[in-house]
From TrEMBL:
Pfam families reported for this sequence: ABC_tran
Species of the source: Phaeobacter gallaeciensis
Domain ABC transporter: 4-219
InterPro entries the UniProt entry points to: AAA+_ATPase, ABC_transporter-like_ATP-bd, ABC_transporter-like_CS, Metal_Ion_Import_ABC, P-loop_NTPase
The protein's name in its UniProt record: Metal ABC transporter ATP-binding protein
Region (Disordered): 231-265
Length: 265
């Protein structure tokens, strides 16, 4: 059974269709990357999967008891609030020292427990958010542009940590990112989204798809070969093309309340 199954999913905001007829299965253990331009519905798709948004049409089926870890695009913390990393991990539900230590170690942040949240660098902050997501020992880890604002070395290190987490926990990873070169090279499967699924399949197939090239140009294919690495497992996925992606699907959803779900003050 798939971890998550979407059938005919459509989502509307104020009469504007942001997602239309999305069909998608997320399988155990895979790394699935969603790419697409601003306003293409990427964050809306993730928020629908975690249950923060209700679809206008279609259905979302989750495996019974599915544990989901979520790393948001943004999280606002009052910089005047004295809050250590260890205390942050116990909000809103208290966790044991052993749980916190294990999660920080898995996230590559084991030396940060006593640090103030307000004093962390961008990369350290994101690793702490990753540790928070790992507290539930997730079967599905979801990341919404989690490296936004990090420099290239910081992003590469973060994605390497994600690959390590997947290997250790055996969890599936669903992530959204604009960093096409590195992220696609680290993925088992890629979905190109522009209000609907334009094309999907293994990274090499998607990078050569006309729909993908129409959105992102041809330069990413060579970079994909440069950054590509071999996984020690394989997934058999077909490569499907949807309708063309040459139209606008409405206003950007990137800032529609994602941060509000994760505000700490």
């Amino acid at each position: 059974m798939s971890l998550v199954s979407l059938k005919g999913l459509s989502v509307q905001y104020g009469g504007n269709t942001v997602l239309s007829d999305v069909n998608l299965n997320i399988e155990a253990g895979e790394i699935l990357t969603i790419v697409g331009p601003n306003g293409s519905g990427k964050s809306t798709l993730l928020r629908s999967i975690i249950g923060a948004l209700k679809p206008s049409r279609g259905s979302i089926t989750r495996a019974p008891g599915l544990r989901i870890g979520y790393v948001p695009q943004k999280l606002h913390i009052d910089p005047t609030l004295p809050l250590t990393v260890r205390r942050f991990l116990s909000l809103p539900t208290r966790v044991s020292d052993a749980q916190a230590e294990a999660a920080l170690t898995q996230a590559g942040a084991d030396r940060l427990a006593t640090r103030q949240m307000s004093g962390l660098s961008g990369g350290q902050f994101q690793r702490v958010l990753l540790a928070r997501a790992l507290l539930t020992n997730p079967q599905l880890l979801i990341l919404d542009e989690a490296t936004q604002g990090l420099d290239q070395p910081g992003s590469a290190a973060f994605y390497q940590q994600i690959a390590t987490v997947r290997a250790e926990l055996g969890c599936a990873v669903l992530m959204v990112s604009h960093e096409l070169h590195v992220v696609m090279a680290a993925s088992d499967r890629v979905i190109c989204l522009n209000g609907h699924i334009c094309c999907e399949g293994e990274p090499e197939h998607v990078a050569s798809a006309p729909e993908y090239r129409a959105l992102f140009g041809t330069g990413t294919q060579g970079a994909l070969a440069l950054y590509r690495h071999e996984h020690n497992h394989s997934h058999d996925h077909s490569h499907d093309h949807g309708p063309g992606c040459d139209h606008d699907h409405g206003p950007s959803d990137a800032n529609r309340g994602v941060a509000d779900m994760d505000k700490v003050s």
